[in-house]
Amino acid sequence: MAGPPSRPGWFAVPAPVRELFKLFPLTTLPAESLPERAPERTRPRPCLYVFARTLEDARSGRPSFNPQCLKWQTFLRIAGVQVHLVPSNNHASPSGALPFLLPPTTQTPTSEKESTTTPSSNAVTKPTVPLTGAKIHRYAKDNSPRETLPDSPPSRTEAYEALLLQSLRPAWLYALYLHNSNTHLLKSLYLPPSPILHLPSLHTLRNAATDEILNTTRRALIDPPQLLADATDALRSLSALLAGDDWFFGQPGPGLFDAEVFAYTYLILDEAFGWADDYSLAQCLAKFDNLVEHRRRLYERCWPEAQGEQVNQH
C-alpha cells in the first residue's frame, strides 16, 4: 500500500508560482554602469575630489571655489602632476572634508603567466588609500616631473600660515557664510538643490562658520570691522614678505605656501565668483599690488590653457 503523499517543505515553491515562472522565466539583466560620479574601478591618473560648481568646471580643470581645495589643486599643478578633478562634497570624503586624492590604480596579475604579459581583465586591481593634507604634498613631490620643488623654511612658514588661518580665513568665513548679501552665493555653492533642505542646511553652515570664527579669534562675539582689520594686517604682512620677489621666501619657483596664499587671493578678486557684499575683502587686497601680481603670475603659470581668459583684477 502506498503511503500518504509527503508534505511539501517550508521552502517548496507553490504550484501556481511554478506555473507562472514557466510562462515568464526569470531573466538576469546585464549589470548597469556605475553613475558618472562614482569612483572608477581603474584610474589611469590620480583623481582629486574637490568642490566644483559644475561637472564641466571639474572636467576642464577650472579653479575650485573652495580655498582648501584650490590650494592643493594649485600645488599639484605647480608640481606638474596631472589629475582628474571629481566634483564631490564632504559627505563623500573618508575624512569628512575635501579635498582628497585617489592615486592611480595598479593591477596585480592573477597568475605568473600574466605577470610577463599585458595585464588582462582577470588581473586584480589593488585598492588605493585616499590621501589628504600632508600626504597629498608628499605624493605631489614624489611624482613630480620637475627636478626640484622649492621647500619654504619650516619655521617661517608656520608663522605666516598662522596669518592665513587666524586672520584672513575668519574674514573669508564671515564674508561668505554670514554676510546677508552673500546668502544667494552660499546657497548656490554649498546648499542642496531641494528647497525643503535649504533652511536647515543654511543654519548648519552658518553655525559651523560662527563656531570656527569664535574659536579662532577667541572673542565672545563676532566683530566684522575687526575681522576686516585683522585680514588687512595679514595681507600687509604677506605683501612685506613678498617684497622684491616673484615667489614667497625668495624661492626660484612657487611652492606650497604660494599655492596657499593664491587659494584666497584668486577667489577674493574673482569677479565671476559672485561677491555681492560691501564688506569688501577685494578692496583690502587691491591695496597690495605685489599680491595682486603674484596672483596673476601664478594663475598664468598653472593655468596656461586659460590664457585666453582674462584674470579679473581690481
TrEMBL record:
GO terms for biological process: mitochondrion organization. Residues 94-155 are annotated as: Disordered. It comes from Hypocrea virens (strain Gv29-8 / FGSC 10586). Pfam families: GST_C_6, GST_N_4. Residues 139-149 have a biased composition (Basic and acidic residues). Transmembrane segments: none annotated. Residues 232-297 form the Metaxin glutathione S-transferase domain. This is Thioredoxin-like fold domain-containing protein. Residues 98-121 have a biased composition (Low complexity). Residues 67-182 form the Thioredoxin-like fold domain. It comes from the Eukaryota. One of its GO terms (cellular component) is SAM complex.
